[in-house]
Amino acid sequence: MFAKNYETDFKFKNDVLKRAVSKIYLAKVDGIFPNEEIICDQSISILSKATGIRRIDPDGQDCLSRFTLLYANKQENTSIVCCQIETGRTHQIRVHLQYLGFPICNDTIYNNFVWGPLKGKGGDYGGKSIEQLRIDVVKQHDKKSWISESDPDYAQRLKEIGENDLYEHDQLDLLNLKFDELPSYDPICWNCATYQKRPFPDDHWFMPLHCWKYSGDGWSFESPLPEWAIQHSDLIQNNIQENKKEIHKITA
């Protein structure tokens, strides 16, 4: 959201500072979520400053999230839940859903066995110390997840770049090449000192967490349902209407 004038900008910021903004999200999670409102008030702190990854910590920042089931798909073993946060901590929804045992689908950070056999459910990290957990989680998401290794031919290629006006990649139809047909260097950043990026599944960068509605005193913002929820829109809208009184009561 962007304010169009100073007065509105000031009001938005003031509402945020006073925690007077209602923030409601939609998330698709693993598992069949209980058909009742679930409140999570577990505090959160930083696990790794370098990556910004968070964890449950009794001595961390106070947090409060409310979750309500909107749709359950027993065949997929997934659910779509309404997430209302009364605080706005970094990764709050993702960490709280992980703690409850319903991590967000395709969340490569928090829906991961690096957190232990239960993926961090209930703060159970499989007996790991916090320091070991930090090491393992950071290692799981270091640069080797994105690139193969340093390119030993980088210096020679850089020299060739300087000596030639026509670069090799200008003659390649990169869009129509298969992955194993691409040049050894990254075609997006072809003069980098690293090999090309590793191939990832098509949905690797997609996580079904959607900002649905923000509202404050005298203003509101609501976005359309995302694609992963549209196919169940009738049922979701019915459940939203059924829960609307409760949602308004919570935000009042």
UniProtKB/TrEMBL annotation:
Coiled-coil residue windows: none
One Pfam family cited in the UniProt record for this chain: PseudoU_synth_2
GO molecular function terms attached to this record: pseudouridine synthase activity; RNA binding
Signal peptide range: none
Gene Ontology BP terms: enzyme-directed rRNA pseudouridine synthesis
Membrane-spanning residues: none
Domain Pseudouridine synthase RsuA/RluA-like: 1-98
InterPro entries with a match to the protein in the record: PsdUridine_synth_cat_dom_sf, PsdUridine_synth_RsuA/RluA, RluA_PseudoU_synthase
PANTHER family linked to this entry: MITOCHONDRIAL RNA PSEUDOURIDINE SYNTHASE, PSEUDOURIDYLATE SYNTHASE RPUSD2
The protein's name in its UniProt record: Pseudouridine synthase RsuA/RluA-like domain-containing protein
Species: Meloidogyne incognita
Organism lineage: Eukaryota, Metazoa, Ecdysozoa, Nematoda, Chromadorea
